[in-house]
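I hope you will forgive my troubling you with a question about protein structure. The matter concerns a single protein, recorded as an amino acid sequence and a row of backbone structure tokens. Please examine both parts with care and let me know of anything in them that strikes you as inconsistent. Here, with my thanks, is the record as I have it:
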Amino acid sequence: MTAIPPKPWPTGTAEQIEPLVRRVLAPNPSPYTYTGTQTYIVGLGDGCAVIDPGPATPDHLLALDAAIGGEHVCAIMCTHTHRDHSPAAAPLARRTGAPVVGCAPLVLDDSGPRVDAAFDRDYSPDRVLDDGEAMTGPGWTLHAVATPGHVSNHLCFALEESGALFTGDHVMGWSTSVIVPPDGDMADYMRSLEILQDREDRIYYPAHGPAVTKPRQLVRGMIGHRRQRENQIVRLLGEAPHHAAGLVPKMYKGLDPRLTGAAEMSVTAHLIDLERRGLVARSGDTWQTS
């Protein structure tokens, strides 16, 4: 995990990051969101799409109003429904009249390891995109890429005209994603990484952290990192049975204490995947090799 950079951050400012793409940083920094959620505006002049509108805070909504100006909003698109990503969709739709398009609704009674992992219970899309479906506007086309794993309803959006991929929380350059069972699924996450590894996207724009300029290299490293974690778990359980929480200090040296719950959830996701593959077994809350 990369350290959060020192302030000032460009919170609330519309940044032109390529000809068709602007970025507005929301004021919700945390150990899990880096400097905050990045909302992307795709398109210029005749009509735009707003990707991951973010939290429904008054100052962020005002910043989006200013960034959009008088431009027609063709769609408000959400990668998934964690509440640092989608709550601003409803008020922005009321302000602009635009449809909410993208991931399917998902609500679970799952507190998760952090407050930001809670699901947006008010998310109600006008159109759900299946894998490969497109949303189009003046001079731009966004294709949905189904990437379950972080959550089951996660989508990325590929911008056909520039080769950019908006990766939400699936791939970020500053940190790996938290996988929180029961909805978060490590096997799905690994398959989704392999899907991206086979693509030829030019650049990734994640919802948190800097753009990824060598995407396939990063994804290859992330797959290797997760395989290393698997091997580490199997080795530790071969030495002695453990609870998931007991594995965390042995696997994550120097971990920020605020991230302990998230690390335990990802370890648990690995354990469930290894159990399905017959490599580990559990008795109550205790895990051991099969």
Remarks:
- Confidence is low (pLDDT under 50) at residues 111-116.
- Residues 91 and 163 are 30 Å apart (CA to CA).
- The chain has two domains: 14-224, 240-289.
